[in-house]
TrEMBL record:
Domain of life assignment: Bacteria
Cofactor: Mg(2+)
InterPro entries noted in UniProt: Bact_CCA-adding_enz_type3_sf, CCA-adding_enz_C, NT_sf, PolA_pol_head_dom
Protein name stated in the entry: tRNA nucleotidyltransferase (CCA-adding enzyme)
GO biological process, one term: tRNA processing
Classification via CDD domains: NT_ClassII-CCAase (cd05398)
Endpoints of the signal sequence: none
Record-annotated CCA-adding enzyme C-terminal domain positions: 260-382
Keyword tags: Magnesium, Metal-binding, Nucleotidyltransferase, RNA-binding, Transferase, tRNA processing
A molecular-function term among this protein's GO annotations: metal ion binding
Annotated Poly A polymerase head domain residues: 11-131
Length: 407
């Protein structure tokens, strides 16, 4: 901001950073708005990236931090319901703030600490109120992602919607249809780190989820199931365990629904598999199975097991017995992966195993270790394989994976 002002331009901290400062929170990101055009911004800083230069945004490196610097702008119509058809650069910060979604995000702070608040965002924060800038119907029609952002802000900041904004949130739900699932996913990822458990009735009642179809539509049932299990005395585990919790209450396809949800919202294959396995583990526990058995933990994997333990701690309101049981089981788990076997594949090859026979031996060894009949020690496992080979007259497991007993 100082660099821009020295060059004769105005500069303001804007958006969520101002909101967070007024709430006494450390801002996650610093966004600067200025009347300097992008080419001027690039000339004033040594390290820049054209983040969204067509819309006036340049990322600049200041000391050890990247921040986005955007030229004051007004926006044209949103024909596709996602982004403006064009932008026009303006000289007035108030005109720039007028294009923003909610009053609590439509404030600017200059370097002297002077607040520019033309729409009453500070008062709305004090009243814990979420209110759209101008006509809420227009704001939601411009960009349907604002519907999900509204939900996220209500939950994240414990706000209430003002009547006009809440009415538009319900009546304009079809605006979410053209929005890419990846964009929705980023908002729901933030929602998963907020106190969503305090708003379950409201979340379950929103028609928003159904409008986008599956997999988003499944959230309605998931939130309703959790609402029926209240009260919860602990805050939910943030992040992916919360996402997994939203799917525990679905039918027997819940694990696959959770996986598809994570994949569709671009959370990555590893996260999707962990969500699927954690949901499967928690549902097994709910059904009375010994979900902490070595075999079930092995099939789930370490990440999913830890996720499931945190989910169950939430569902049981921190029951000390359950927490201790899961912690003990995870700490004492003898194997998490076939690669953890103390007898490596090279040893099996040295003993004469070849091709698929190696995998068959490894599968049988995993079974022996998980059953508790054999310790995961190299020499013990080696003796067991030698006994199997002797029993088979040197022909391994005879094409029958897991056929040998450790007894």
């Amino acid at each position: 901001m100082e660099v821009l002002e020295r060059a004769g331009y105005s500069a303001y901290l804007v958006g969520g950073a101002v909101r967070d400062l007024l709430l006494g929170r450390a801002p996650a990101d610093l966004d600067i708005a200025t009347n300097a055009k992008p080419e001027i911004v690039k000339s004033l800083f040594d390290r820049t990236v054209d983040t969204g230069i067509r819309h006036g945004t340049v990322s600049v490196r200041v000391r050890d931090q990247w921040m986005e610097v955007t030229t004051f702008r007004a926006e044209g119509p949103y024909a596709d319901g996602r982004r403006p058809d064009y932008v026009e650069f303006v000289d007035d910060v108030v005109a720039d703030l007028a294009r923003r979604d909610f009053t609590i995000n439509a404030m600017a702070l200059d370097r002297s600490g002077r607040l520019v608040d033309p729409f009453g965002g500070r008062q709305d924060l004090a009243r814990r109120l979420l209110r759209a800038v101008g006509d809420p119907v227009e704001r939601f029609r411009e960009d349907g992602l604002r519907l999900v952002r509204a939900v996220r802000f209500v939950v994240q900041l414990s706000l209430a919607c003002d009547p006009a904004t809440e009415r538009a949130l319900v009546e304009q739900v079809d605006a979410i249809r053209p929005i890419a699932l990846e964009r929705i996913g980023r908002e729901l990822e933030r929602l998963a780190c907020a106190p969503w458990h305090e708003h379950l009735d409201w979340l379950a009642s929103l028609p928003l989820w159904r409008q986008r179809g599956e997999p988003l539509a499944w959230l309605e049932q998931g939130f309703a199931w959790l609402a029926a299990r209240r009260p919860f005395s602990l805050a939910p585990p943030p992040g992916w365990p919360s996402v997994a919790l939203w799917f525990v209450g679905l039918d027997e396809d819940a694990p696959l629904c959770g996986k598809r949800f994570a994949e569709s919202l671009a959370y990555g294959k590893d996260v999707a598999h962990s969500v699927e396995r954690a949901v499967r583990l928690v549902r097994a526990w709910l059904g009375g199975a010994d979900a902490t058995s070595p075999l079930m933990l092995y099939e789930a994997g370490y990440d999913a097991a830890v996720m499931a333990a945190r989910m169950i701690a939430f569902l049981t309101c921190g029951d000390l017995f359950e927490r201790a049981r899961w912690k003990r089981a995870i700490c004492n788990q003898p194997l998490w992966d076939r690669a953890d076997l103390a007898l490596p594949a090279r040893d099996l090859m040295d003993m004469g195993a070849r091709g698929k026979e190696i995998g068959e031996y490894q599968q049988a060894l995993v079974k022996a270790v998980l059953s508790g009949k054999m310790k995961n020690r190299r020499e013990d496992l080696r003796r067991l394989v030698m006994a199997w080979r002797k029993e088979d007259d040197g022909h391994g497991l005879g094409g029958q994976p897991g056929a040998r007993s450790a007894d």
